[in-house]
Amino acid sequence: MLSNPLLTSSARRDFVAKVILWLLVVVASPWGYADPSRQPTVQTLNHAQGETRITGTPVRVVTLFQGATDTAVALGITPAGVVNAWAQGANYDYLDDALEGVPHVGLETQPSLEAIVLLEPDLIIASRRRHEKIYNQLSQIAPTISLETVFDVQQTLDVMGQALNRVARADELWTAWERRLANFRQQAAASLGDRWPMSATVLNVRADHVRLYLDGSYAGTVLHNLGFTRPPPHPENQWVLKLTTKESIPIIDADVVFYFMEDDQAVHNSFDAWTSHPLWQNLTAVQNARVYPVDRVDWSLAGGFLGANRMLDQLFRHFGLEEES
Q1: Residue 60 belongs to what domain range?
Q2: How far apart (Å, rounded) are the C-alpha atoms in residues 303 and 106?
Q3: Long-range contacts made by residues 193-197, C-beta under 8 angstroms, separation at least 24?
Q4: Mean pLDDT to the nearest integer, 18-23
Q5: DSSP letters of 184-247?
Q6: pTM exceeds cut of 0.90
Q7: Within a domain: 72
Q8: Residue 136: which pLDDT band, with cuts at 50, 70 and 90?
Q9: CA–CA separation, 179 vs 75, rounded Å?
Q10: pLDDT at 283 over 50
Q11: How many domains does the chain have?
Q12: What does the mean pLDDT of the chain come to?
């Protein structure tokens, strides 16, 4: 074509220049061609520790806290790596099937940077609460998103939906969640009448003390969204309160008490000591037989969207409510 006699010398030079320019653009393009519509999407996400630029849709995602692992599975993502669960073995029982074969990178409080590097992730989901001091090192391995805490179900779902290009799926999940919340509130009001809304206390019994989880906690937030109220003695703007003496039992008082604990003899002994105290017998929930044992993982350790739904499953059962299909 370049020797076509119909082309003048000047025209041939122009044609060759255009071909060279086109080839340079193709080589420079990560997709092998210069069509802007085929370039990977680029987004910049604001998060608890700054801004992170994400190119394309991350495939190899490492989650460094339980709520992120739970939420990844909810979004239809199998993580490339996860941290060890706090109970029930390497993974929580309800996530065992979804995480079968997924490598572990250590503890949530101390993940192994070396193990993360070997997984070659293209996105890391961390938390300032757990990983503030190693955020810069994580960011050198791969783009890293840092959530403020480890138990904000809505924020985790929202940010991960954006980061993983699963916004539509995240919106769908949240819409279904809000529908379940509304269904519970409606049925609770119809079933309990003037007794609704109820005040609620969430207790974690330990060997040497009792922890009171407040409105700002994982379980407390779910209960608040369901319509349960904060008992007046509970302090505001806190997520947990440590009770070390049984004289503080009156602060537990509420219409309903939910409790969970580790299956350990010392913890069981502690539970017996607290619940046999005369002050415990004076609690409103005790007198009305509204003290319910609940699952430790779902109510405290899960911290994600699936765990919150499992928590809601238990509440429907505890109050004898029928969920609409």
Answers
A1: 42-171
A2: 18
A3: 195/255, 196/227, 197/227, 197/228, 197/229
A4: 41
A5: HHHHHHHHHGGG-SPBEEEEEE-SS-EEEE-TTSHHHHHHHHHT-B--TTSPSS-SEEEE-SGG
A6: no
A7: yes
A8: very high
A9: 18
A10: yes
A11: 3
A12: 89
